[in-house]
Structures are given as C-alpha cells and as structure tokens.
C-alpha cells in the first residue's frame, strides 16, 4: 500500500462522518499538501475494490465514503444531508426471505433510512 493510500485510509477511519471525496481531500491535504483530488478519488475507488472501505452511493446524491467495511445501516437527513450509522444490527433474515421468494441469488443488501435529523427538527420547530 502506498503512503498516499495509507493516509487516505487513516483519515477516513478517523471519522464517522461519512465524508465526500472533497471533504476527505481537505483533511488529507493537511498531511500530504501536494496530493490531487484525482488521486484521492482513485485511491478511494481502489480501497473500495479491495474491500477496505465502502462507497455509499444513492441516486442524486454525492458519493460518500465509509471506513467501516462490514455491512451496517445508515440514516440520511433529507434536509441537511447528514449521514450517520443506524444503531441496529443487520437483519440477515431479509436476504433469506427474498431468496425463498425469487430465483435471484442474493449476495448482500444495503439499507438506508431517510428522514429528518434532530438538529433539523429543532430548527423546524423554531420556525413554527
Ligand atoms: Zn438534518
Ligand atoms: Mn457507516
């Protein structure tokens, strides 16, 4: 693993904020001032292929990156875009249930809850 890739991985693992490539570029540049955004992108793709990290992509949203490679669920605020881990276990029975109903060979699943985060709820309450 190159030094650049190791620094990118360390910075991603140091946060639970699920940064975008731009966010991460800002953090990584403090340690590697000459790195380019393209290099950060490329290394994030490679780290995803290696199974070291996850790319979280949802239609219409900027890609976000997660230093936790094992499956877990997320909550996304539709107002501010905040993305956090959902405090619940992965439900393996979901895959079995689908497998029993279809010919589809289920290899995994991703689950994202959408809603309004507590901070945005508080702001909405103030406006009312
Ligand atoms: Zn919010
Ligand atoms: Mn996560």
Biggest beta-sheet profile: 3 strands, mixed
**Parts with pLDDT < 50 across at least 5 consecutive residues:** none
Name the helix and strand elements from N-terminus to C-terminus, one letter apiece. HHHEEEEHEH
Query: Bound compounds, please?
Result: zinc ion, manganese (II) ion
Q: What is the top-level CATH class of the largest domain?
A: Mainly Alpha
Say which CATH homologous superfamily of the largest domain is assigned: Winged helix-like DNA-binding domain superfamily/Winged helix DNA-binding domain
CATH T-level fold name of the largest domain: Arc Repressor Mutant, subunit A
Q: Report the structural category.
A: alpha+beta
DSSP helix fraction: 40-55%
Radius of gyration: 17 Å
**CATH architecture descriptor name of the largest domain:** Orthogonal Bundle
The count of helical stretches stands at: 5
Number of domains: 2
Oligomeric state, counting identical vs distinct chains: single chain
Enumerate the strands of the largest sheet in spatial order, edge to edge or round the barrel.
4-3-5
Q: What's the pLDDT, averaged over the residues? A: 95
The fraction of residues assigned to DSSP E strands is 5-15%
- Distance between the ends: 53 Å
DSSP strand count:
5
Explain briefly what this protein structure is.
With 128 residues, the chain is of the alpha+beta class.
């Amino acid at each position: 693993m190159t030094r650049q890739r190791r620094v990118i991985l360390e910075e991603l693992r140091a946060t639970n904020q699920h940064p975008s490539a731009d966010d991460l570029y800002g953090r990584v540049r403090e340690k590697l001032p000459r790195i380019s955004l393209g290099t950060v992108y490329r290394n994030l793709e490679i780290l995803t292929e290696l199974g070291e990290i996850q790319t979280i992509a949802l239609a219409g949203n900027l890609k976000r990156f997660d230093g936790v490679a094992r499956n877990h669920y997320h909550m996304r605020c539709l107002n501010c875009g905040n993305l956090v881990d959902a405090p619940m276990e992965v439900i393996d029975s979901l895959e079995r249930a689908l497998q029993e109903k279809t010919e589809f060979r289920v290899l995994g699943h991703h689950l994202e809850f959408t809603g309004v985060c507590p901070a945005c709820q508080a702001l909405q309450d103030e406006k009312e």
